[in-house]
């Protein structure tokens, strides 16, 4: 089943890492540098999708759920957006290419190796003027957003980091007064690997209005979903 598929991918990745002396994330970046068009975000996104669907699976949001992400960003048309979990920079590039002039995206990554790769990906895609990558744990960075990064409120938040951080970080965003009436949260992987405590929290809270978008796990036929939670104030 699903577990076996993913387990096989993990084993294959570890073997390849050992033989090639580089990580899967480094291979994704190299593939983009060699095959995508510099300064063309769409080309970067498509090239990552191509690599991950044909060569090695990776935890990007992927194209199917990416279309839900695109549609939400276009509807919200944010001036200030936050992404939790940059990974290789795929969704940061995907979001940044849709931002209006003068808008900005802050993307948070805890893993230094992923942060280094995301930085290069963002720069190669030519969206570095719109994206600020913040390296460190989300629970430390969120409380600094107002003072240190001059954020008043966030129009859009994309949650795609550790699933057990979805709920506490959502609560933290509320406590730090970073959400305004109409702020939109979009959470990836709420079914697989799943974020049940987050779903329970936002669905039961009188402060959020939720919509669920059934989908599939990136590059696989495994059921997953994206949850949209609109902050009602």
Automatic annotation (TrEMBL):
From the Swiss-Prot or TrEMBL record, what is one GO molecular function term?
Answer: catechol O-methyltransferase activity
Annotated Mg(2+) binding sites: 160, 188-189
* Chain positions recorded as S-adenosyl-L-methionine binding sites: 61, 91, 109, 136-139, 160
Keywords linked to the UniProt accession: Catecholamine metabolism, Magnesium, Metal-binding, Methyltransferase, Neurotransmitter degradation, S-adenosyl-L-methionine, Transferase
Q: How is the cofactor bound?
A: Binds 1 Mg(2+) ion per subunit.
Instruction: Name the cofactor(s).
Output: Mg(2+)
Q: One biological-process term from Gene Ontology?
A: methylation
InterPro entries cross-referenced by the UniProt entry: Catechol_O-MeTrfase_euk (IPR017128), SAM-dependent_MTases_sf (IPR029063), SAM_O-MeTrfase (IPR002935)
One GO cellular component, as annotated: axon
The EC number of this protein is 2.1.1.6
Superkingdom in the source lineage:
Eukaryota
Query: What Pfam family is a match, any one?
Result: Methyltransf_3
- In this chain, substrate is annotated as bound at 163, 189, 218
The family database entries (PANTHER family) matched by this protein are listed as: CATECHOL O-METHYLTRANSFERASE (PTHR43836:SF3), CATECHOL O-METHYLTRANSFERASE 1-RELATED (PTHR43836)
The record's similarity note reads:
Belongs to the class I-like SAM-binding methyltransferase superfamily. Cation-dependent O-methyltransferase family.
Name the chain's protein. Answer: catechol O-methyltransferase
Organism lineage: Eukaryota, Metazoa, Chordata, Craniata, Vertebrata
